[in-house]
Amino acid sequence: MGQNVIMVTQTPGHGYRRIGDAVAGAPEGALIVVAPGRYNENLVLSKPVTITAEDGIGTVTILAGSGVAVSVATSSAALSGISVVSSDKDNPAVFVAQGQLSLTECSLDGAGWSTVFASGDGKVLMRDCEVRNGVGAGVVVTAADGGVLESCRFTDLGTSAVVVADDGALTMRACSVVKAAGNGICLNGRGTLTVDDTTITGTGKPAVAVEQQATMKAKRLSVSAADGIGFYLASTGHVFLDDCSVERVGAEGIFVAEGCKPELRGCRVRASGFRGVHFAARSGGKFTNCEVAEVDGIGVHVTERSTPEFDQLSVAGSKRSGVRVSDAADPFFRRLRVLGSDGAGVEVDEGGRGTMENVEIEGGEVGLRIVGGSRLTASGLSVRDTRAAGVEVVDAALALADSAITGSGGDGVHAGGGANLSVARCRVHGSDGMGCQFAEGASGSITDSEFSGGQADGIRLDTREAVRVSSCTVRDNHGSGLRQTRPGTAIEVLDLITSGNLRPDAFGTSASAEAARSSPAAAPTPVKTADDPLMELQGLVGLAGVKREVTSLINLNKMAKRRQDAGLSAPPMARHLVFAGAPGTGKTTVARLYGQVLAQLGVLREGHLVEVARADLVAQIIGGTAIKTTEAFTTALGGVLFIDEAYTLSAGSGGSGPDFGREAIDTLVKLMEDHRDDVVVIAAGYSNEMSKFLESNPGMESRFSRTIEFANYTADELVTIVRTQCAKHDYRLDEEAADGLLDYFEAIPKDGTFGNGRTARRVFERMTDRQASRLAEASEVTAADLTLLTAEDLETGVR
User: Fold this and answer.
1) Which CATH number applies to 715-793?
2) Phi/psi of residue 3, each to 5°?
3) Rg (CA), the chain
4) Whole-angstrom Cα distance, residue 652 to residue 785?
5) Does 67 have pLDDT greater than 80?
6) Where are the domains of the chain?
7) CA distance 459 to 439
8) Whole-prediction pTM value?
9) Is the pLDDT of residue 605 over 90?
10) Rounded CA separation 778/49 (Å)
11) Can you count the helices (H) and strands (E) in the chain?
């Protein structure tokens, strides 16, 4: 045998008896060949040597009852075909704090917090290795050049398979994770991971978790059969997923939160147990050519002011809405395709916003539904074969252009109470209801559009509000081409082309409208009236002081209206308001209801709410701010302009600089004076910052003469909000869970990060996540189990 080949054997007289002794006696670069056997020792690799099993994989085992089984104290070393087993609960089996350790075809078993740990200047190169640990993690890396894992298999982990933390960096290729009680991959701190062609199956927590400032670049990373979330992305670092997939997970397929802005390309989510993709907490990012299919809940949900961009997104077979936008989120969709949802194809509610271009919706209950003070701009929309309306707008605003709606089970386009609908260059064909209906309380316009082949009227106007119909064609409908059922002068019809309809048109004068109502075929369809906004205001959780202030204002406006009707002068009133308080205290909701009440009193023409923030008012070029501010203000005429976080206009924040914010303030002051009787402006934000905002312009304090303080919700009120969410979504909260929530809400810090009502709603959503994971493991689940949230569903730290 060569001079640099050293034997280790348990047979006396044939070489070293211990591997450590062989390392100590070997020259640098030596090959140490180990005969089969179990070697009880703590091996310190103090020289650059290679250690290999003489008879191949699995024939040599290094055992350590205490301490580290294998550690490195040299520039480089290598193990090949060696099994390492540690039973020490306080130390890793393999520890590399300096130098490089190569592990090839090794089996590594740990019993402590990690099997392999690379820190400091350490680096591990692992190929074709098996890693197990029934108590802790597989591989933990905090080293800046932590190394490479290639074709490695992680099984039966007590916590997470691979953890990259602090300033660690790691590359994974062609690895697999099977059965980890924690995460398959966990990144935090400023950790960096590049991972390709890897599979993760059967994790107890999110299969992939990227948090804090961590960075990940993943290609062909596949997740399946996780109990909870597939990908949890909550990092401010760059996250890029290419051709990745999630299948059969218990909660969200992909959950993006905490301002994370990932980039996803060619990714797929299938058969998730809750939402397919969920954006929360002001997150964003770009999704290109992605697919979501067969999820048990909402396909894609964008909420909490998130602003992602989607291009070529496909959503199919969702048990609820295909896409939902809520809570002031403002996404952008281009080339969206939604097929076969059990609920609405696309639903925008709770003040959601958004822009959609080239959207295809097929099947579902309603194609596009806009409700709850939301506003959307959509062009190139195609809706086919819905069970109810093709497009539905209630108490919201929609600008719809260049679109086609075919085969709706109800109205092609339905504008309900409080809707502001603009339809331009659209075609509606073959609706079972009206081609387009404006119900009582709806307003808007229809331009250059065609309504044909419907089972009822082509256009039906049941409202006394302003509607303008211009250059439209109505033909071959089973009712009238256009029918106005309420006499009045607010309806304007210009250049109407009508032919082949089974009933005559009726519009324009009170006489024709009365005749239409007397015709058996012209009986108006019953319309559900909206709830009383004043009653809804009084029914809100908490806010006793706010309710008193707003009710006082409403009464003052009511008396002012009566005095005007009696020919008397109106008393001085605080028309424009400041809503001061922390986020999530109901400021937007109260503003919306206040506008509706003023509209009922005749103080405002429409009472709609237009919500804006700094980005909606401030431009990035000289002169652009005045234009943007004027445009936003004009859309609010007749209603309420709600300026969220108004103090940012005077704080000099944002890339446009302080002068542009002050330009917006100056423009607002002038517009408020010019239109003082036709709009209510409400500026909202934190109490201290709003005081500074009022001082930023000499005319500001005189315009906003009344401030209403929104206090934080009490712990009891936050529990009530959770109970309200339970009732809204068909859940029940048992008393033990309610007690746990009460203790949690009493203890939680009420600092600048506290979200009030949003915090309560987020706690509810996480409880439903945990309930889904809990029930997924049960052998039998009753209908009562599906609705009950228990103390087990509270997160650690809440219980």
Assistant:
1) 1.10.8.60
2) -65, -35
3) 33
4) 52
5) yes
6) 1-112, 123-250, 533-650+661-710, 715-793
7) 11
8) 0.66
9) no
10) 52
11) 14, 63
